[in-house]
Fold:
Amino acid sequence: CLLTTASENKNLVKIKRFALDSVRAKHPRTLGLMLMVVGLPNVGKSTIVNGLKQIAFSTARHQGPSSKLMHGVKWTEARASCVPGLTRDVSFFQLSNHPRLYCYDTPGVSLMKRRNDPERNTKLAVLKCMPDHIAGEMYLADYLLYRLNREGIFDYVSALELPGPTDDVRYLTSHISALLSQKKQTQSYNIQVARGATFFLDLWRAGKIGKVCLDHIPNPEEVERLRLLRAQTEPPGPWGPPCYPDVPEGLELQKRGPVLPEGFEPRSRRKSTGGPNTARRDGGGGGGYR
Structure:
């Protein structure tokens, strides 16, 4: 896992070094090495491609005219913007000539494991993996306000000059619209309630009113509970755990099935001794025949 900041070209060189050190090209002089950038929409895939190319051109200028690093490479950049869904086709770019390195820029993909999970879709929309108007600006602002209040992050109170924390998104967006109207003399704003919700979302995305992880981070007890559940699914033996772990109380796996009498044999395994017309005794307690 490499943590990078593509907008500032931080740690992008590590991606190139990792690709060259981990993968050996079959035809390094002709075809070279090919990469592909895949991820959610609006996470900076095109910005990574442009950053790698900018670093390569800067290195070639520093090496001088005799450098073969970017010889014959065109200065063609991928379309990058803060608007999600800008890249709609697969594009092919050459990052360097010596060594030969190419990269595919792909559109954003979102694998919907649960289509009926509204909270997961809302989290992706708050992170701007889709346009705000699809989910609704007011709806997203209301969810973000709920998460900030639940985590106890009240930086928006001082940033927006509020008298105190609030859980009313209509009051919040109206207050933001009033603040924007006061600044109309120096800056141009579109004074609308939906614009107030968009301003609130952009303020959080810029990291100016606190940072919060929208996904659930399990604590050590939950991690240990999950490990016990995974160990419980494998029976003891040479390929599994030596014995069943001590499952804490409250789990369904602790419950055992009914105690069967000695000599019990399933009906499918019983051997019929009579002919096809022999009556079989019913397994129930009624004592009848069928």
About this structure: Confidence is low (pLDDT under 50) at residues 247-257, 275-290. The longest helix spans residues 45-63.
